[in-house]
Amino acid sequence: MPLKFVENVKADVTTDVVYMMCPMHLLKLEEMMKSLEPGQVLEILTDYDGALEDIPDWCDKTGNEFLGVEETEDIYKFYIKKKARQT
Amino acid sequence: MKIRYFDHVATNPLREEILEAMLPYLKEEFGNPLSPYELGTRARTAIEEAREKVASLIGAKPSAVIFTSSGAEANNFALRGIALARQNKGKHIIVSRVEHHSVLNSARFLEKSGFTVTFLPVDKHGMVEPDTLKKAITKETTLVSIIHASPEVGTIQPIKELSAIAKENDIIFHTDAVASAGNIPVDVNELGVDLLSLAAHQFYGPKGAAALYVRPGLRIVPLIYGGIQENGRRAGTENVPAIVGMGKAAQMAKAELPEKMKHVKKLRDKLIEGITKVENVYLTGHPTERLPGHASFCVEFIEGEAMLLMLAAKGIYAASGSACSSKALKASPVLLSMGIPASLAQGSIVFTLGSENSEEDIDYLLSEFPQIISRLREISPYAGGWGNTEEKGQCIPKK
Question: What is the per-residue pLDDT for B393?
Fold first, then answer.
């Protein structure tokens, strides 16, 4: 599936893992998502190229919605929407 | 022979209580902090408790403390990590000429890697003047690193004033507080710094544990790559016993600091008064803005290493800022940058005091020192003077 690029997404919470070692981008993502309310959007900032595959895959596996990624000069900004509560 | 230890800036003895706290982690509590079973989680908890204690010593949030293996590593990490993280903003950094080699040589490495470095001059007391920093700042400057207290001359820099200048210009400020943390009050918010290095063995903790404070939210490129220890910022299986020891040492240092400062300052003042009574001996560093347990001097016509050996023969352990390398006498760059002539800088001698030093230790030192100096001067080829080849330095003349 081609990667979805987005711009100007509004996030509820931001977490910065730039220069932190792999797999901090996934561990931090998991930790932050737990603290979010369903429907809220997380922004995760990273310079790690591997995240381009890992984060969409993680969303697929966990059922959270991958809104897309924005590429800036030196980092990536990923946007993930927390899935609705299971009824 | 009784040993009188006056070299606390080199290192400190490990306190018994600290060793006791460490021992379980050298024996049965050997788990890897990343292991998910209990043995691992207990080690993890011990590290986090130590982090809280170290953070408390410097008035920081625990999450802002990254453990390293030494003060030198913390300084390398700060300089390289910030210079690289901000190189898109600019490639100019500023350090003083009286930094520890771990800062100076990191700056030189960056210089070779395409950065521009300004080495700030100091005054005759080894102090950086805030105006000098202001003038050195360019649009390209991303980082300033200035040592908190000099291990060689004891001078305490006006860090609060210097960091404010950096902040006004949106520049990151690091201070090497290895010689000061645990010896004088050190508070990251009070000092206004973004990064600060400290080492456990400077306040009765073990070697092998140190830390870098990194202001929350500040990006820093790792120095050591690997696993996710220290929140993915410093890889390598943690030195759990040493980190636990550092935590205990930080807790004790914080509790005992006012008493310790009072004790060593009293001894230091007596020591300075006694030593400067000897002919042609000068105090180096700032007369008042100096570490409370730090007394450093230049002794004319003799060489530091010779003094150290003669003192050691009497059970007195001290340090010298000068290093005698083979036949070529090499003077300390710190003393030279203060305007002290190379010849006089050869006679550098540094006494640094700790809690366990007593007044009787000082009396003994003061009774032995003049004789050692006389004896060395008798055999010194320079006893008649330096041959007037150099101007007299800017040491503070003895009273």
Answer: 43
User: How would CATH label the architecture of B16-254?
Assistant: 3-Layer(aba) Sandwich (3.40)
CB contact under 8 A, B85 and A27: no
Tokens of B299: 């002794």
Closest C-alpha to B17, from B166, B283, B206: B206
Where exactly are the structural domains of chain B?
4-9+257-379, 16-254
Give whole-number Cα distances, B144 to B32, B280, B317, in Å.
Answer: 36, 37, 35
Q: Which residues contact B309 (CB under 8 A, 6 or more apart)?
A: none
Closest CA to B191 of B212, B218, B161, B147: B161
Burial of B255 (0-12, 13-18, 19+ CB in 10 A): exposed
Residue A19 CB neighbours (<10 A)? 19
Contact criterion met (CB below 8 Å) for B256 and B205: no
Q: DSSP labels for B249-306?
A: HHHHHHHHHHHHHHHHHHHHHHHHHHHTTSTTEEE-S-SSSB-TTEEEEEETTS-HHH
Q: Which residue of B has its CA nearest to A14?
A: B217
Element (H, E) at A39: none
Q: Strands B294-299 and B316-317: what pairing? A: unpaired
| DSSP code for B396 | B
- DSSP H helical segments within chain B, as ranges? 16-26, 38-57, 71-85, 101-112, 130-136, 159-168, 188-191, 229-232, 240-275, 304-313, 333-337, 342-345, 359-379
Q: What is the ipTM of this complex?
A: 0.86
Task: Report domain B4-9+257-379's class.
Answer: alpha beta
* Cβ <8 Å between A20 and B225: no
The token duo for B209 is 């544990």
d(CA A14, CA A5): 18
Read off the pLDDT of each residue in B271-283 and give the average, rounded to a whole number: 96
Q: Which of B80, B215, B218, B219 to mutate to test the interface with A (most CBs of A within 10 A)?
A: B219
* CATH of segment(s) A13-81: 3.30.110.40
Q: CB distance B219–A19 less than 8 Å?
A: yes
pLDDT in tens, B321-335: 755 544 445 788 899
Query: Please, what is the average pLDDT of chain B?
Result: 93
